[in-house]
Design brief:
- The longest helix is centred in the N-terminal third of the chain and has 18 residues.
- The radius of gyration is 19 Å and the shape is globular.
- It has 237 residues and is mainly α.
- Helices cover 78% and strands 0% of the residues.
- The two termini are 31 Å apart.
Length: 237
C-alpha cells in the first residue's frame, strides 16, 4: 500500500528531474551584458538573430517577458536573413517562455508554427526539440496522453540522430508520466534510459537523481529490497 510519505518523497524527487537538468544552457544570465554589447555591434541580421536567441535563453528563467521580447526580435531578424533554423529556434524559445507564464495558447501557436516551418526546412534536431516542447505543453495542461504521444515521437527522432542530451530530458519526462499512470515497468524503462545517458555524460547529479527515482518506484511497488539496493548506488555529496 502506498503511503502519503512515499508519494511525497517520490514527488519531490521527480520535481528535481525536470528538463532543465538535461538541457545544458548555452548562455546564462551573467552573460546578458556581454550579449547586449554583441547585439549592438552586430552587422548582419543573421548575427542579430543568433544573439537575440542567446539573450532569450539567458533571460528565460530570470524574466520570461524579456525572453519573449528577444525571441520576437530574433524571429524578425531571422526572416530578414532567410535563416529558417534560427526562426524555428526562436519560436521554440518563445513558446518555452510562454509556458513559464502559463500562456498555453500562444505557446501552442508558436510550436505549431515551428512545425510548419520544419515541413519546408527539415532539421531533425529542431524537430525533436519542437515535438518535445509540444509534449511539455500537453503535460503542463494535464493532458498525459497527448504528452506521451509527442514525447515518444521526440524520443524516437532524438535517438535516431544521437541527440543524447535531448534523449535524457525526454526519457525523464516519459518516466514521470508513466509513473503517474501507474505503468511502473515503462517508467523504469525510461528512467533507466536517462540513467545510462547520465552515466555516459559523467553527470553525477543526474545519476543520483535517476537512481533516486528508480528507488522511489520500487518503494511504491513495495519492493523494499530493490529500493535499498538502488539507493545504495546513489553517490554521496
Amino acid at each position: 500500500m502506498k503511503t502519503t510519505a512515499q508519494f511525497t518523497a517520490l514527488f519531490l524527487t521527480i520535481f528535481c528531474l525536470l528538463p532543465g537538468q538535461f538541457f545544458a544552457q548555452p548562455t546564462t544570465a551573467s552573460q546578458i551584458p556581454e550579449l547586449e554589447k554583441q547585439l549592438a555591434a552586430a552587422a548582419t541580421d543573421g548575427e542579430k538573430a543568433k544573439i537575440c536567441n542567446d539573450l532569450a535563453t539567458a533571460w528565460a528563467k530570470k524574466d520570461p517577458d524579456q525572453a519573449i521580447n528577444y525571441t520576437g526580435q530574433a524571429i524578425q531578424f531571422a526572416k530578414n536573413a532567410g535563416d529558417a533554423p534560427a526562426q524555428i529556434l526562436a519560436l521554440n524559445l518563445r513558446g518555452d517562455a510562454q509556458i513559464r507564464k502559463k500562456e498555453y495558447l500562444p505557446a501552442q501557436n508558436d510550436y505549431e508554427n515551428a512545425r510548419d516551418l520544419l515541413q519546408k526546412s527539415p532539421d531533425p534536431m529542431l524537430e525533436g526539440r519542437t515535438l518535445h516542447n509540444l509534449g511539455k505543453l500537453a503535460q503542463s495542461r494535464n493532458d498525459p496522453a497527448t504528452a506521451i504521444h509527442f514525447y515518444e515521437k521526440a524520443f524516437s527522432i532524438r535517438e535516431k540522430i544521437g541527440d543524447k542530451a535531448g534523449m535524457g530530458g525526454t526519457a525523464s519526462n516519459l518516466g514521470v508520466l508513466f509513473f503517474e499512470k501507474s505503468e511502473y515497468e515503462k517508467s523504469v524503462f525510461y528512467y533507466q534510459k536517462a540513467l545510462a545517458l547520465k552515466r555516459e555524460a559523467g553527470d553525477e547529479m543526474g545519476i543520483a537523481t535517476a537512481l533516486a527515482n528508480l528507488a522511489g518506484i520500487f518503494l511504491v511497488e513495495n519492493n523494499l529490497e530493490k529500493s535499498l539496493i538502488v539507493k545504495m548506488r546513489v553517490p554521496l555529496a
